[in-house]
Design brief:
The protein is of the alpha/beta class. It contains three helices and five strands; from the N terminus they run H-E-E-H-E-E-E-H. It is elongated. It starts with a helix and ends with a helix.
């Protein structure tokens, strides 16, 4: 499994060491998913914010960035939706309703159920709540 947080840390470490740390006001990370069950995007593996391990690593990253006097923003996402690549029609992209996929209009997206929407909202709220409780 990829260690996405190590990628974050490596990129920021390289940037800071090259002398850009004094001029950076805000670093924005790549997309970070709040769920793993609803949407499957095999070509675009995103970091997952819902694990305890990721939370510990992101806390370390935030502290390191703050040590340079820089702010950091973690981009939380529910997923890629209709813009996700279509590899298999057995796992179509998801959307608010059964709409054609952008990548392959012949594939109809999976319409989110109320329960799935609640899970996505809960994932976003949970990540935000956990991060603010830890002051990151």
């Amino acid at each position: 499994m990829l260690n996405r947080t190590a990628d974050f840390q490596l990129a920021i470490g390289i940037t800071m060491r090259q002398g850009h740390g004094g001029g950076a006001g805000l670093i924005i990370t790549e997309l970070t998913k709040v769920e793993r069950r609803i949407e499957n995007s095999p070509r675009m593996r995103l970091a997952y914010a819902g694990s305890d391990a990721m939370l510990v690593e992101m806390t370390d990253l935030v502290e390191a960035v703050h040590d340079f006097g820089t702010k950091i923003a973690l981009q939380l996402t529910a997923g890629l939706g209709r813009q996700a690549d279509v590899i298999e029609t057995a796992t179509p992209p998801v959307s608010c309703s059964p709409l054609p996929s952008y990548a392959d209009p012949s594939v109809i997206c999976h319409a989110l159920t109320r329960e799935e929407i609640q899970e996505l909202v809960g994932g976003l709220c949970g990540c935000v709540g956990t991060g603010s409780n830890r002051r990151i």
